[in-house]
Amino acid sequence: MTDAEWAAATEPKLMLECLRARGAASDRKLRLFAVACCRRIWSALPDEAHRTAVEVAERYADGRETNDERDFWWQESHDACWVIPGDRSDLHHAARAACDTVAEKMEEVLPYFPSVGRFGDLPEEVERKAQADLLRCVFNPFASFDPAWITPTAYALAEAAYEDRAWDRLPILADALEDVGCEDSAVLAHLRGDGPHARGCWVLDLVLGKS
Q: Nearest-CA neighbor of 29 among 52, 65, 62, 64?
């Protein structure tokens, strides 16, 4: 897959294959992509156990939760997945995604995600496109970034946006990077674009030294 093909892709499975082939997908970033998919369908998750499992998975990705806590909430949400009343296959998709987000091996989980969110009035291709856009937020296997752009101001702006999920501040970070010589169109366009944005954002990770 070329840079142009990546930018236009709408099939998450092919994009994930590209990332694996290039060795560009860490466990942390795969986990955060899964979290972003779950947050996209947050209101459809069937109960608090599943939402807590996703939150734990997000904290675990950044080293803020223990293995024991992760395992406990995986079991809680996994058990709840099988007691959803009635024929609610849509909620089972959402539930499976939520509880498996805390799994140890994200490679075993991600094949489920192209089917997540197939409920309500959303066609499957709409959900695939949305997930492709999330992949482009979390990953850019073709990115280039000059460490000289990481000033104390840029770092502080990136850290605050990441911690607060304050994606509306990303254009301010773009201005700060531009002020120190960043002319990379991909970096600036991503920060100034409409999103979607999520934790794991490839530009924020480069500024913050996360992988």
A: 62
pLDDT in tens, 10-50: 988 889 889 989 989 888 888 888 888 888 878 777 778 77
SS (H, E, C) 150-184: CCHHHHHHHHHHHHHCCHHHHHHHHHHHHHCCCCC
Contact 107, 17 (CB under 8 A): no
The stretches of the chain forming alpha helices (DSSP H) are 3-8, 12-21, 27-40, 48-61, 67-81, 89-100, 106-109, 124-138, 152-164, 170-179, 185-192, 202-208
Please compute Rg for the chain using Cα positions. Answer: 17
172 within 8 A of 156, measured Cβ to Cβ: no
**64 in Cβ contact with 57 (< 8 Å):** no
DSSP per residue, 46-62: -SHHHHHHHHHHHHHHT
Identity at 131, one-letter amino acid code = Q
pTM comes to 0.79
- The whole-angstrom separation of Cα 63 and Cα 168 is 25
Q: For residues 182 and 93, what is the distance between their CA atoms, to the nearest angstrom?
A: 42
